UniProtKB/TrEMBL annotation:
Keywords: Hydrolase. It comes from the Bacteria. Residues 22-131 form the SnoaL-like domain. This is SnoaL-like polyketide cyclase. SUPFAM superfamilies: NTF2-like. It comes from Roseibium alexandrii (strain DSM 17067 / NCIMB 14079 / DFL-11). One of its GO terms (molecular function) is carboxymethylenebutenolidase activity. GO terms for biological process: polyketide metabolic process. Its EC number is 3.1.1.45. PANTHER family: CARBOXYMETHYLENEBUTENOLIDASE-RELATED, POLYKETIDE CYCLASE SNOAL-LIKE DOMAIN.
C-alpha cells in the first residue's frame, strides 16, 4: 500500500467522503459540501453532469443518486495523488435495474450485471473538489447491456479482467478473426 503525505491524505479523505455521500449515504447536499463554489462534473463518454454548485446539486439529487442501482460498488484498482489532483482507476460494478440517464441515457433497465472500468481525474482547489472528469468505454456498457451487435469488435465484462489479473486472456478480439 502506498504511503501518502498528510496533504495528499486530506485530498483522499475529501474524495472518499464525496463518494460515500453519493454511493452509501445517497445525499446530494453532503456531496456538494465537499466541493468548491463552482464545481464541474463531466461524465466524458455521454457528456452528463453539471457546472456550478446548484446545478450540480440538482444533478446529484434528481438524476445521479436516484438512478444508481442499489448494488453499485466501486472497486479501486490504482490511485495516483499529486498536489491538487487524484487519478483513480476503478471498476464500477452494478446490476442495471434502474434507468440510468447519467450513464446510458434513454436505456431502460436490462437486468444485466455490468463491470465497467473507469478513470476519474479529480481536481482540487483549497482542499475541496473543483472538478471530476470521469472516463469509461461506452461501447463496453452497451455490449454488456446486450445492445450491440455481437460481431462488433467490442469487449463486454471481460474488458476489466486483465486489470484484475494480468494473466487473464488477451487478444480475444484478434483471435476471433
Amino acid at each position: 500500500m502506498e504511503t501518502f503525505s498528510k496533504a495528499q491524505q486530506k485530498l483522499i479523505d475529501v474524495w472518499d467522503a464525496h463518494t460515500a455521500s453519493e454511493f452509501a449515504h445517497k445525499n446530494a447536499d453532503e456531496a456538494i459540501a465537499t466541493m468548491t463554489d463552482h464545481p464541474v462534473l463531466i461524465h466524458v463518454p455521454v457528456n452528463t453532469g453539471a457546472t456550478g454548485k446548484e446545478p450540480l446539486r440538482k444533478f446529484y439529487a434528481e438524476i445521479f443518486i436516484p438512478q444508481m442501482p442499489e448494488d453499485a460498488e466501486l472497486e479501486l484498482l490504482t490511485r495516483t495523488v499529486g498536489g491538487n489532483r487524484i487519478v483513480d482507476e476503478f471498476i464500477l460494478h452494478l446490476t442495471h435495474t434502474v434507468r440510468m440517464d447519467w450513464f446510458a441515457p434513454g436505456i431502460e433497465p436490462t437486468g444485466k450485471r455490468l463491470a465497467v472500468p473507469h478513470v476519474g481525474i479529480i481536481a482540487f482547489e483549497g482542499g475541496l473538489i473543483a472538478s471530476e472528469h470521469i472516463y469509461w468505454d461506452q461501447a463496453t456498457v452497451l455490449k454488456q447491456m446486450g445492445l450491440l451487435d455481437e460481431d462488433l469488435p467490442v469487449l463486454g465484462s471481460e474488458q476489466g479482467a486483465r486489470l484484475l489479473d494480468p494473466a487473464a486472456p488477451a487478444n480475444q478480439l484478434i483471435d476471433r478473426l
